[in-house]
Amino acid sequence: MRFGNGPSAIDGAQAKRRLLLSPKLAFLVVSLALGQLGDGLNIFQGIYLVGKGWNEGSVGIALSLMGLTSLVIQPFAGDWVDKTPVDRRVFLSVASLATALSASTILLVRDGNRDHGLIYATKIGEGVASSFIGPCLAALTLATFGPRNFDAVMASNILWGHIGSVLAAVLAGWVSYVMFPNIKLCFLVIGASALVACCFVQFLPQGDPLMGRGFTGKVAMDEHGELEKLESEDSDDFGDDAETPMNSRIDGGEEPVATSYLEVFTDVRSVILCCTGFFFQ
Predict the structure, then answer these.
(1) Which of the four pLDDT bands, split at 50, 70 and 90, describes residue 259?
(2) Stretch 62-70: mean pLDDT, rounded?
(3) Domain range spanning residue 86?
(4) FRET pair for 273, CA 20 to 30 Å: which of 58, 116, 163, 172?
């Protein structure tokens, strides 16, 4: 579903999709599938590599590379997702597929303490790709539901993401048990999860891209998928019609300008928040 910039808000195909799956439910399913991508079943991969003949040090390096790469790349990924004119749903689909493809290369590992370079490189790639998933999902949620409903919907996304992680572990264990001794087939769960995510991403609204960056919007969806006004003024400009454009600030004016990073990081409240997060970790 997409709310366009012009007077025509929803085309026929997208309207039919909305009838099949509500936006909140679409976010729920996508979050569940992305949770199954998780960390690429790192724990299972570590056990599998040990069984292949890898030593503990090599396994430790492999399992750490994804997290370290994601830690470094995610701020830049968030900045890119925030500023890009490209549909964030495209980024989310590509990131999901790239994450699954990188994680699935473990199927190519041969017996013996070798193929280190393949796993190290793909773990770095997996960390880069997965860094875009969280920012894309958060931006799409804010762009669709606005600040009023963002907390509730995002909390639901995170909850179902954790459920997806647990489900991925259960499915991987079940596949390993059923397909033993071909336990490497359990990693196909990752690829299946990425395909499910990509299939249901098309049901996500694009929303108001500028509101997804944190700018003020006038119209957003509530948790039931109905449009609601975010501001009390100009109430006559927006009806209850489903074809009201969500991007309600297209009035010929210039695009708003975001606060600079220097201003953000020199704000006392931002510093306190960052320090709290740092020491909490």
Answers:
(1) confident
(2) 87
(3) 12-211
(4) 163
Rounded to the nearest angstrom, the gap between the alpha carbon of residue 76 and the centroid of all alpha carbons in its chain is 15
Q: How far apart are CA 48 and CA 277, in angstroms?
A: 34
In whole angstroms, give the CA distance from residue 62 to residue 264. Answer: 35
Predicted structure pTM score: 0.77
The CATH number of residue 27's host domain is 1.20.1250.20
- What six digits make up the tokens of 120? 């190290």
CA 166 to chain centre: 17
Query: How many domains, in total, are found in the chain?
Result: 1
C-alpha separations of 62 from 20, 55, 120, 129, 254 in Å: 42, 11, 6, 16, 47
Task: With residue 68 as reference, give the H or E element that holds it.
Answer: helix 56-83
- Strands (DSSP E) contained in the chain are 219-221, 227-229
- Answer whether residue 253 is part of any domain: no
122, 163 Cβ separation under 8 angstroms: no
**Exposure class string for 241-264: b at 16+ Cβ within 10 A, else e:** eeebbbbbbeeeeeeeeeeeeeee
Domain assignment of residue 255, yes or no: no
- Is residue 122 assigned to a domain? yes
Residue 31 pLDDT class (50, 70, 90 cuts):
very high
Of 67-71, 133-137, 235-239, the least confident: 235-239
Residue 178 in domain: yes
pLDDT at 37: 80
Mean pLDDT of 104-115: 86
Is residue 279 predicted with pLDDT exceeding 50?
Answer: yes
- 168 CB-side CA count, 13 A: 31
